[in-house]
Structure formats: C-alpha cells, structure tokens
Amino acid sequence: MTATRTEAPTIAPTRLADADLDLLLLIRHFELALLDMFGRGELHGTTHTCLGQEYVPVALRPLLTDDDFVFSNHRGHGHYLARFADPHGLLAEVMGREGAVCQGVGGSQHILRDRYLSTGVQGESVPVAAGVALHLKRTEPGRLALVYLGDGTWGEGAVYEALNMAALWGLPLLLVVENNGIAQSTPTVAQLAGSIGGRARAFGVDHLRVTSTDTEVVRAALTPVLRRVRERSTPYVVELLTHRVGPHSKGDDSRRPEEIAHARAHDWYARYAQAYPEQFGVHDERQRAYVAQVVADVAGRPASRWAEADRG
Ligand SMILES: Cc1ncc(C[n+]2csc(CCOP(=O)(O)OP(=O)(O)O)c2C)c(N)n1
Ligand SMILES: [Mg+2]
C-alpha cells in the first residue's frame, strides 16, 4: 500500500478555471468512453488510460509552447488531448476511421503530429528526445523537449545513456515521471532500487518530487522548473507521485481490492466533485455529452485509408 504517496484526500483541491476543468473532464470522459467501447467489442487492439493522472498534462499545458517537443508513451491520450484538444482525430486514430491523426496506422500508442510523438516502447523516447534537445539548443534556444515516462521505465538502460549525454551536453531535456507506484502488475518497490531522485542526482541532474494531485499546485511547482530548463539549457527530472485509478490496460488490474480503493480515494475527479459540486456538475455533464457526440460522429465514419502521398 502507498498511503503517504500523495496528500490526504481530506485536503480540498484548489478551484480551477473552467478551461482547466473542461480539459480534465474531456480526458476523463474520452477514456471512459474508450473502455466502454472496448467492453462492447467496438474497439480492437489495446489501450492504456490515464484515469487519475489527467492533471499532469493539464498542469503543464500553459507552460509549454507549440515550439516545444513533447514525447509521450503508451499512456498518452491525456498528453495528446492537452496538447491539441482534438478528441475527433484521436478517436478516429484509435478506431481507424477517416480523420485519424496518423491515418489509423498508429492507433492508441503511436502518434506523430507536429512536434508531438508517442511510442509504446518504454524508454525509447528519452534518447530520441535528447537528440532533439541537442538540435533545439543549437538552433532554437529557449525551447525544450519534454518526455513523459513511468516509474517502471526507469528499468530501461536507454534512459541512463540519454541522461548522461543530456547532463554532459547541457541539453534542455525535461523528464516528467508519472510515478503511479506500479508498472503493469509490478509494484515500484519491487523493481526500483534506490530512488528516481538518487538516480537523477548520480548524473548531476536536478530532480523535483511533487506529491500534490492538485492541478494548480502542480503547475506552480513546475513553472520555475521549465523556466530553468529553458534559460539554462539543462536537463531536469520531475517526479509526480500519482495514482493509476484504472487497470493497466483494459481490464487487467492485478492489485488487491484495497489498493484499488486507495487509488480511487485519491482520485481528483471525486474530490473535485465534492469540493465544487455546482461548477463540477455543469462541466462534467457538458464534457460527457461532448464526448458522446464525438463517439457518435467518429463511429459513423468510413475506415481511414493509408495514402502514401499524405505522409507529410
Ligand atoms: C521496452 C518495453 N518493454 C515492455 C513493454 C510492455 N509494457 C507496456 S507498459 C509497461 C509498464 C510500464 O510501467 P510504467 O513505466 O510505470 O508506466 P505506467 O504503465 O505505470 O504508466 C510494460 C512492461 C513495453 N511497452 N516496452
Ligand atoms: Mg507506473
């Protein structure tokens, strides 16, 4: 059990701007709709939801510009929606329908759009992002490359090779670690010796651990970090202690019932609903209805077609 990973559920969340709340709820309802469609046999392949972790990309959204690069992972719907607010394109991608961001060949995990790239291969993004950060340092100073990765991905050697070069070369590389305490079915304590902070510091890379799940608090903590990465051209590791409210993928949750209940007790969604019922009720209903429309629209489209000429 991970009782002290994040602040106690009794601390009231900060009231959010409507736009932030809408984005949180868009991600939430988008992913609930995906799980629902999988349950009804309407989707194929796989998907990993970020239920409970939506606040991370929402907190980061205003701290990034379109000129920064974002590298996402297997659990990337929230990262994509926070960057593009494009549920139609993402759902079409997952369903293989017309209007898909990558013509339906990438699916849930492999998306390329402008300066956004996701991969389902754990750790792959870190060296790629280090290379991009080197390019940015040379040609577009002040811009950064951000990589989202999980706690379990610190088992990949490529992460350390990239951190080493990023430290040596002073690269504007920001690693955002969504530490949800588990990697598929393996608790972090069973696979990670030492700590993420200790590993970052071994390379002389700064590390900040954030335990709040409050969008505003997380944003305030990250604001000086991004400024520093940009201004000093230096790598940084930010570790956010978070909770995976849903299964690893669609229905595969190996945790004990009390562990799942613990994650749910820390879920921002229920806590925010309780703290601000009026604001929450209006926006929750609005985003739920919007996602239902998106699903109806995209499900009614013909299959997407791979066209070599459109590859861009
Ligand atoms: C190189 C590689 N090995 C194994 C997998 C299978 N896999 C997908 S997600 C995952 C667990 C990832 O855990 P973590 O990094 O903590 O991210 P989380 O799923 O908790 O967000 C594994 C083992 C993979 N995608 N890539
Ligand atoms: Mg994890």
Automatic annotation (TrEMBL):
Name the Pfam families on file: E1_dh
Domain of life according to the entry? Bacteria
UniProt EC number: 1.2.4.-
Q: Which GO terms describe its biological process?
A: pyruvate decarboxylation to acetyl-CoA
Report the top EC class in one word: oxidoreductase
Cite the GO molecular-function annotations of the record. magnesium ion binding; oxidoreductase activity, acting on the aldehyde or oxo group of donors, disulfide as acceptor
Q: List the InterPro entries hit by this protein, alphabetically.
A: DH_E1, PDH_E1_Alpha_Subunit, THDP-binding
Domain Dehydrogenase E1 component: from-to ranges:
26-298
Give the protein's recorded name: Putative dehydrogenase E1 component
- What is the source species? Micromonospora lupini str. Lupac 08
Biological classification of the source: Bacteria, Bacillati, Actinomycetota, Actinomycetes, Micromonosporales
